[in-house]
Design goal:
single chain, 57% helix, mainly alpha
Length: 90
């Protein structure tokens, strides 16, 4: 798990880079990255999983479910002026 201190340091680094950006576009990119980091921290705090939900998530992901692809029978289109089965046959 990434600590808040690590995220704050990254935000400080991006703030400095945004302040010294050569163009407005570069500054906006740095500010967008800062916003994303803030959103991650704030969303994590609001929706931090409880130990019970962590256990239920681990049991859900421990056994993957595989499904067989279902083949859909298609009717072959017959055209008088077609040269073959391919879409690219004229």
């Amino acid at each position: 798990m990434i600590t808040y201190e690590t995220i704050v340091k990254q935000i400080e680094k991006l703030t400095t880079e945004a302040a010294h950006a050569a163009t407005e576009q570069q500054a906006r990119e740095k500010l967008t990255a800062i916003r994303a980091l803030c959103d991650v921290v704030l969303d994590e705090k609001v929706s931090s999983p409880t130990p019970a939900s962590i256990n239920s998530m681990s049991t859900m992901t421990s056994s993957p479910v595989y499904t067989q692809p279902v083949a859909i029978p298609a009717q072959k289109l017959e055209e008088d002026d077609a040269n073959g089965d391919s879409l690219f046959d004229f």
